């Protein structure tokens, strides 16, 4: 079970921090992703973090602006988003794959607009 929070309305250039709370599985054993889906577009991958945070990777569109972190003691994975742009407007989802099955939260809406 994954539950995202932290979305909202922010002006261009602003920042938001999204959080995803996990339950029902051994969180520290699974890599985690953030995805997003903009209106009228397909869902796209945003960021990835390994089980122990040793490796992170980012989509080119967010590299240098977004940072993914996790806290295995709290079973949470966060996405710090800085210098937000209107094109970052989307519903953001956290994700992992358990026994070959993608698990998704309900998403949290981020709107970047002046």
Q: Your description of this structure?
A:
The protein has 114 residues and is an all-beta fold. It is 0% helix and 52% strand. The protein contains no helices and 11 strands. Strands 2, 4, 5, 6, 9, 10 and 11 form a 7-stranded mixed beta sheet that branches. The chain is globular and about 40 Å long. The model has no long low-confidence stretch (mean pLDDT 97).
In brief, what are we looking at here?
With 114 residues, the chain is mostly beta strands. The chain has strands at 2-5, 8-10, 16-22, 32-37, 44-49, 56-58, 66-71, 76-81, 90-98, 101-104, 108-112. Strands 2, 4, 5, 6, 9, 10 and 11 form a seven-stranded mixed sheet that branches. Strands 1-3-8-7 form a four-stranded antiparallel sheet, with no helix packed on it.
Keywords:
4-stranded antiparallel sheet, mainly beta, 52% strand, 7-stranded mixed sheet, single chain, 114 residues
Overall 3D shape: globular
- Please bin the fraction of helical residues: under 10%
Strand % is over 45%
Unreliable runs? none
